[in-house]
Predict the 3D structure of the following.
Amino acid sequence: MIFRAVEDADLIRQAARGSVEAYNLLVSRWEKRVYNYLLRITANREDALDLTQDVFLKAYQNLRRLDNHERFAPWLYRIAHNEAYSMFRKRRPEVDVDELEPEGTEMGITVGGSSVFPIELSLAVGSALERLSPEQREAVVLKIYQGFKFEEMSEILECPVSTVKSRLYTALELLKLELAPIKARGLS
């Protein structure tokens, strides 16, 4: 038997006609990516899990409104973006988005008494990302971690492509400075 991978567009059409099985396949294909996106935006595992469930529930409820099935990914990430920022607005009195600390940054992992470099690098990158503005951080996450094209990012963020590029390139310059070795910054 020859296995043919079912394309997202086919699953979307089936799910829009009421196929729960097709929608479950879509969820299984996309939930890890959406969760990782939300985790990087919220810096909180529980929030990312809750928001991921909310995103897929809203997507299911509104799937029939999606006109172009080829635009599923940007549409889904726009829902995720909206859900995350809705949560931030609700919590504003309690927590400022810029003050969120990524989980796990306070712990280092050692093996045999010596630090493991990739973990240190990952923590440094996570910490540097947290120092960016929420808009810059989201641009980096969408482009670098999620692999979206500028036009798709523009659709997700609802701003012009030039604004997306400006946010991304400014963020990358700040990250480059932040992550540059101390010696390269002129400090020794």
Remarks:
- The mean pLDDT is 81.
- Residues 177 and 185 are 8 Å apart (CA to CA).
- The beta strands are 110-111, 114-115.
- The chain has eight helices and two strands.
